[in-house]
Amino acid sequence: MQRRYPSHRAWLRAIAVEVMRERGLEPEFPAPALAEAAAFVAAPTEADEPTRDLRALLWCSIDNDDSRDLDQLSVAERLPNGNTKLFVAVADVDSLVRKGTALDHHAGVNTTSVYTPAIVFPMLPERLSTDLTSLNESVDRLAIVVEFTVSPDGTLSGGDVYGAKVHNRAQLAYNAVGAWLAGDGALPPAAAAVPGMDEQLRIQDEAAQVLSSVRHQQGALDFHTLEVQTHFSGDEVQGLEPRQSNRATSLIENLMVAANGVVARFLDARQMPSLRRVVRTPKRWDRIVSIAAEQGTKLPEAPDVLALAEFLKTRQAADPEGFPDLSLTIIKLLGSGEYVVDPPGAEPPGHFGLAVKDYTHSTAPNRRYPDLLTQRLLKATLAGRPSPYSLGDLEQLATRCTEQEDAASKIERRVRKSAAALVVSTRVGERFDAIVTGASPSGVWVRVTSPPVEGRLVQGDKGRDVGDRIRVRLMHVDVDRGFIDFSA
């Protein structure tokens, strides 16, 4: 392997920039967008429309340890009748990133932030995404608040959306909060410094667990994949580490799914079109049926999300160590999500994997363009204005957002492969246990559990299909192209 750059980080950055351009995304902000961002001297304190002052509530953010673009806050209130009222505040990004501006144009080109091991390509300049439009700790911010009530049996009611002023009392991270909720760690210092924040987190967690239970009863699919992050020592890649989900990630996931459902229904009830995030009925259900049969479970011939959810639950209990491999296999066979337009009065398309009928993306407008579009639809609705986009415009935007999000996923995966190639570059010739994660006319792909890397099966690939377990030998790596080649 020929080293071409002074450090691994520099090498991976160069690869990331090249692949961004290859996939049609802009790795750098155009000058007009940077000029617009630089012209803002402070975050807005007053909205165009009347807002509620909710700064006194015990808002907190929970995100990745290294996240600086904070899109949402949450807070909960126990009601006398046993219900719990939840509030999710979403950063009012549209207050600065107006439709038709240079910032908006760039966001519409990339449509998403791209996260690679060595560099992040934010959808918006950091002057905005990590500062003026970020719900940072100890500052006042404008937000769009999604409010709903959860009963002890999981019934969701009282959905409402409105503008508000909010104040983040504690910036928290998944790992520390998750450990504390599970009884494996101390209350994070940022939470301990705020009187009542410990109880606040417990209330949110209890509501999230109830929401999760109901979603899974309805057939929401529960996956546990081995998400891998690259570990650096300085600017050199040292290894790959699995990123684990925990109670805190589950808390936020369930609150966001609920909030996105409220937003979708809010727009629909007011005859406003919306962008929906959907995963359609899987085309390779027959292969899912075959995999289940190999595990001793008979699934219906027609796609059935409840039956699939029960199969996954059973396999997780029976084989927790092998469940991440099964999860990845089923995810591949389900196919990727897409954005579609839901016109007023139409039947919502639904999301197969989440087992929900109403689902949009609205809670991450600093990072995803569809969320910013949804925010503009919401603000128009609240102001009594018509939609800022025609149905034809939304159709084109939905297609572009789907395409660019798919491209961003390929970019992230491509650079992760280059990082993985760096990790295994000294292990050519060794043998590993693997699982087939992809099979098509273009090739067969396998994933090794330890170290957690994926590569192409270039020899012995005949007759292989997704889910097969095989023994492979590492033959060749190419960091520049992200190639990791195995033989069976």
Could you characterize what this model shows?
- By secondary structure, the chain is α+β, with helices and mostly antiparallel strands.
- The protein has a domain of 263 residues.
- The chain is 37% helix and 24% strand.
- It has 13 helices and 17 strands.
- Strand 3 and strand 4 form a beta hairpin.
- Helix 1 packs antiparallel against helix 13 and helix 7 packs across helix 8.
Short key terms for the protein model shown above:
six-stranded mixed β-sheet; 13 helices
Helix/strand layout:
Blueprint: H1 8-22, H2 31-39, E1 52-53, E2 59-63, E3 72-78, E4 84-91, H3 102-110, E5 114-115, E6 120-121, H4 126-132, E7 140-150, E8 156-173, H5 174-181, H6 189-192, H7 197-217, E9 227-233, E10 236-243, H8 247-269, E11 274-278, H9 285-294, H10 305-318, H11 323-334, E12 338-342, H12 369-383, H13 391-424, E13 431-440, E14 443-448, E15 453-459, E16 469-478, E17 483-487
Parallel strand pairs: 1-8, 2-8, 15-17
Antiparallel strand pairs: 3-4, 4-7, 5-6, 7-8, 9-10, 11-12, 13-14, 13-16, 14-15, 16-17
